[in-house]
Amino acid sequence: METENENNEHRIMISIMDLYKSFGDNHVLRGVNLEVENKENVVVLGRSGTGKSVLIKIICGLLMPDSGSVNVLGKEVELLNDKELQQLRLQIGFSFQSSALYDSMTIKENLAFPLVRHSKNLSKTEVNEQIERVLDAVGLLQTMNQMPAELSGGQRKRIGIARTLILQPKIMLYDEPTSGLDPITSIEINKLINLVKEKFNTTSIIITHDLTCAKTTGDKVAMLFDGKFIKKGTFDEVFSDPDERIQNFYKYNFIH
Amino acid sequence: MKIKPVEKKLISKKVDAFFINLYSAFQFVIRFFKEVFKPPYEVKEIIKQCYEVGYKSLFLITLTGFITGLVFTKQSRPSLSEFGATSWLPSLVAIAIIRALAPLVTALICAGKVGSNIAAELGSMKVTEQIDAMEVSAVNPFKFLVVSRVLATTLMIPMLMCYTGFVAMMGAFINVHQNEMTSFITFFQQAFDKISFLDIFSSLIKSIVYGFTIGMVGCYKGFHAKNGTEGVGKAANLSVVLSMFLIFIEEILIVQITNSIRP
Asked: Interface pTM (ipTM) of the complex?
């Protein structure tokens, strides 16, 4: 009952209104509006350098907006103090484009790193159980004692996702989850994103320019162009729009 | 129009950048003092860094310390023997080593070995988004990476300085013993005859300041590395140059202060 109330209360998990962000004279975001509902996967599509990654970095407070409002789980990100921001970040998982695994630590230490700092009451056995649980969920239990440098690109992405899942976040932010991967590994990552949603009940924003990823993982697709969303809807709704910019994006993805 | 207007330069791009950098370095130091006393304490990481800074520098420090003592004694001998004053060698060498050589040699070697290592490590963590990853997993990267390393250099470099002093004195003793057949006890009695508490105390203070500087500069440069691998190389290089420059400035200042209070 309590969980149901909580879910209703946060039906809109992320709400972004009139967001602006510039770096010097490079005006990256120019009035972005977006709402993400509970347990929804929203794919943000756009060309490289259009500010897709900036958008999710603002959501988790790594960057601050110039103006506009970013409301995550009912909290205005730009108004939070350090402690409140840390509390909010515990509920957000961020999968980096480069995986960002700590390369001086083993996979096990990578996964234990956030866990032991936030769940101090856990015994060693419980920590190990949690690590095994998330490694099993991403299908890489056997890599536990390996170093990140020994893994392939796809495996590193999976471990990156496992490391964020260990804190059981409500929101997952994926930054280019399939970039630099071969098509078969990309499909595996897409399946994993859907599996994470089902198994861990997460709400996700997936940043990509890969249409296969967008189609397989997105409940909704939002097309970012020149710092604004020019179209939002399901994959088919977005790409049935005759807008030349959207059609060009679609065509160039399948160019020979 | 809500687009943020581009900020105009106050003087010029380079001068503005210099002052912005200076301000951010100042903020970085202030943040260290704010975070250092705040729990949770990363004790395990501090011990690991002490091992990295202290134990792993021992070989290099032993070699340079010993050679410094030996060569300095060798080079001083001809000038002193002209006046028939070679018996002053132990006290002359001791004063030089304890007041200046031990802290400086240790600091310069560590600026090269430890400072560049810290800047390169943190720099590569920065450009591969590992620092951001720590931040989004609600772990304070400043506390884990910066505070532990700065504490380690501030604690270990004074210890390394004492060790360098001892090894350099041993180098000097070997030379004096070879030429004058002075015994170990007589050598050290003569050597410490002219050394005061202030000499030892000021050297300790110096090496604490140098250790703090090396850790701080290495961490600052690494933490603010940008532009990929090129940026990491730059950070490592700049950390060595800047640490050495600051160490010499601090040396001048501390020597001035010590001399003004010397009775």
From this structure: 0.88
